[in-house]
């Protein structure tokens, strides 16, 4: 074998040794990764901590003068605010919501309703004369907007006669059908019977459900209560225009229904239904407030509700 061949053989041997050493080192490194427990592997000590801020409670510091109140989410059934929400208290003219709801479950909106003699001598507010006739829908719009006692009595009479029942039984049936466990009425107007007995009783929770049902069932009638006045024409062609008993209808965004009530026995009552989103109605009810504070109570609860849905503590 000549010198050139010996040189090539030496180079080949050296290359094989280098390859063998590389394989041994690679195998060793693989063994370390495969067989050494993960607990021996040191990871970076710094870690990311995710913190979340609690959602502000917009109702936490709400104070109202009313004896009882509720903010009720009609879309979800959730109670957002509760102050004695299941207490049974005098309703005053909020009773008219039950009267109109009962009538609309039994009569067509076009049913003619005539003002009876029994409605004329009631305490005010009233606006009609004996024998005047309106469609149920028109009379309901005027009655709810201006809280007319003569209109409420006429509607209650006509509905009870259609069912061949007393007014008490007719109103009780409507309350029961809607699941209003704390609500009953002895007349269609809500006027106090005497200094100790109201014409109607109910809880804030019941009234929230009732107002929501009426706003859903008869939106055109409910919408009349959100404006400063309502108009209608009797069957004989006489025009009527009445003022709303709620002076703050223009201040509530997306208002769907408004109804006031006041008697000496009940104090000041108020029901509002308004939208906080597309088809997301909220009911606000205050019972047992004062003549003026019912409106400030209502405004306070509406503001807290808007803050709640905005995710802030207050507006």
How far apart are the first and last residues' alpha carbons, in Å?
A: 101 Å
Q: According to CATH, what is the topology?
A: Beta-lactamase
Order of helices and strands: HEEEHEEHHHEEHHEEEEEH
What is the highest CATH level, the class?
Alpha Beta
Output the number of helix runs: 8
- Sheet with the most strands, sense and barrel status: 5 strands, antiparallel
Mean pLDDT: 88
Low-confidence residue ranges: 5-10, 19-41
CATH architecture: 3-Layer(aba) Sandwich
Major β-sheet strand ordering: 2-1-12-11-10
CATH superfamily: DD-peptidase/beta-lactamase superfamily
Structural shape: globular
> Which band does the percent of strand residues land in?
15-25%
Total number of beta strands: 12
Give the total of domains. 1
- Quaternary form: single chain
Q: Mind telling me the C-alpha Rg?
A: 36 Å
Notable traits:
315 residues, alpha+beta, Beta-lactamase, 3-stranded antiparallel beta sheet, 38% helix
Structural write-up:
The chain is an alpha+beta fold and about 325 residues long. The chain has a single domain (about 70-310), classed as Beta-lactamase, CATH 3.40.710. Helices cover about 40% and strands about 20% of the residues. It has helices at about 5-35, 95-105, 135-145, 150-165, 165-175, 205-215, 220-225, 295-310, and strands at about 70-75, 80-85, 90, 110-115, 135, 185, 200, 230-235, 240-245, 255-265, 265-275, 280-290. The strands form four sheets. The protein has a five-stranded antiparallel sheet, sandwiched between helices. Strands 3-7-6 form a three-stranded antiparallel sheet. A two-stranded antiparallel sheet has the order 4-5. Helix 2 runs parallel beside helix 4 (about 150-165), helix 2 (about 95-105) crosses helix 5 (about 165-175) and helix 2 runs parallel beside helix 6. The chain is globular, with a radius of gyration of 36 Å. The termini are far apart.
């Amino acid at each position: 074998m000549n010198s050139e061949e010996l040189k090539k053989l030496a180079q080949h041997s050296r290359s094989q040794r280098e390859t063998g050493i590389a394989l041994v080192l690679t195998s060793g490194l693989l063994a370390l990764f495969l067989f050494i427990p993960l607990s021996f592997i040191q990871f970076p000590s710094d870690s990311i901590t995710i913190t979340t801020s609690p959602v502000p409670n917009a109702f936490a510091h709400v104070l109202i003068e009313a004896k009882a109140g509720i903010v009720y989410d009609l879309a979800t059934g959730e109670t957002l605010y509760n102050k004695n929400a299941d207490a049974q208290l005098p309703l005053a003219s909020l009773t008219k919501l039950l009267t109109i709801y009962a009538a609309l479950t039994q009569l067509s909106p076009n049913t003619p309703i005539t003002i009876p003699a029994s409605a004329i001598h009631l305490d005010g507010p009233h606006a009609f004369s004996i024998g005047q006739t309106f469609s149920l829908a028109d009379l309901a719009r005027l009655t709810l907007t201006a809280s007319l006692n003569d209109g409420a009595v006429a509607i209650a009479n006509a509905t009870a006669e259609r069912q061949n029942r007393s007014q008490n039984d007719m109103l009780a049936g409507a309350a029961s059908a809607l699941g209003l466990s704390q609500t009953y009425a002895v007349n269609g107007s809500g006027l106090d019977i005497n200094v100790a007995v109201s014409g109607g009783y109910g809880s804030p929770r019941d009234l929230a459900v009732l107002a929501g049902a009426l706003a859903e069932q008869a939106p055109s009638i409910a919408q009349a209560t959100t404006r400063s006045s309502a108009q209608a024409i009797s069957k004989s062609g006489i025009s009527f225009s009445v003022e709303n008993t709620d002076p703050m209808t223009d201040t509530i965004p997306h208002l769907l229904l408004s109804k006031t009530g006041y008697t000496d026995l009940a104090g000041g009552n108020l029901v509002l239904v308004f939208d906080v989103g597309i088809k997301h109605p909220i009911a606000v009810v205050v019972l047992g407030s004062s003549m003026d504070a019912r409106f400030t109570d209502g405004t306070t609860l509406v503001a807290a509700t808007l803050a709640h849905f905005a995710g802030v503590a207050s507006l």
